[in-house]
Amino acid sequence: MNHLTLATASMIALASSANAIEYKVDPDHTFPSFVADHMGLDHWRGKLNSTSGTIVLDKQKGGGTVELSIDPASIDYGLDKLNEWAKGPQLFDVAKYPTVTYKGKLAGFHDGVPSRVEGELTLHGVTKPVALDIDMFKCIPHPMLKRELCGAEAKGTIQRDQFGLDAGKDYGIKMDVALEIQVEAIAVE
Q1: Residue 64's beta-bridge partner residues?
Q2: Among 12, 47, 115, 184, which one is least packed by beta carbons within 10 Å?
Q3: Torsion of the alpha carbons at 39, 44, 47 and 48, rounded to the nearest 10
Q4: Model confidence over 42-101: pLDDT tens digits?
Q5: Which residues contact 43 (CB under 8 A, 6 or more apart)?
Q6: Which residues, listed in sequence order, are joined to residue 143 by a DSSP beta bridge?
Q7: β partners of residue 66
Q8: Are strands 42-48 and 31-38 parallel, antiparallel or unpaired?
């Protein structure tokens, strides 16, 4: 490839991504949460309090990516004793697996708004496909920062034993876990 062709290809690549905007996930407004069975008696609800990442969104082309990093040591059931147990080797084993990641592609666009994420979750050292349905998605000008702020709610389900998190399975506790993720992200300057 000659220099002129290479330069032209580079300009086309830049032009094609010119409409894509990168957003930084706001850790103060982003909480992956979940609902899980508790011996068939009720459901435990919890959230993870420390999430970071980036989202790239191209509303015109109907595409984008999501990359999240979640700290499982930030688990919060609202019960300190259960939080400490969950961090240990019987469940998350945060000493051995200190990070949970989710990487995906935004899909199902209608009028510049994605309706789902097709991605992969890496949890407890295991990577599996996990699709999320986006129930709510909206972007607005941030009133103070004067940059675009986007928010979304996404939902999905995992089988936790497929990730090696099978505590309670022998007691008949169901392994399906409903994910409910609230995320806000601000456009990078």
Answers
A1: 57
A2: 12
A3: -30
A4: 999 999 999 999 999 999 999 999 999 999 999 999 999 999 999 999 999 999 999 999
A5: 35, 36, 37
A6: none
A7: 55, 104
A8: antiparallel
pLDDT score, position 39: 83
Could you tell me if 2 and 167 are in contact, meaning their C-beta atoms sit under 8 angstroms apart? no
The number of distinct structural domains making up the chain is 1
| DSSP bridge pairs for 134 | 154
Domain of residue 76, CATH code: 2.40.128.110
Residue 133: domain span: 20-187
- Residue length, the chain? 189
Tell whether 87 is covered by a domain: yes
Longest CA span, the chain: 69
> Tens of pLDDT along 13-41?
444 456 899 999 999 999 999 999 988 88
Is 13 a domain residue?
no
* pLDDT of 17: 53
What residues contact residue 185 under an 8 Å CB cut-off, 6+ apart?
23, 24, 25, 26, 30, 54, 55, 149, 150, 151
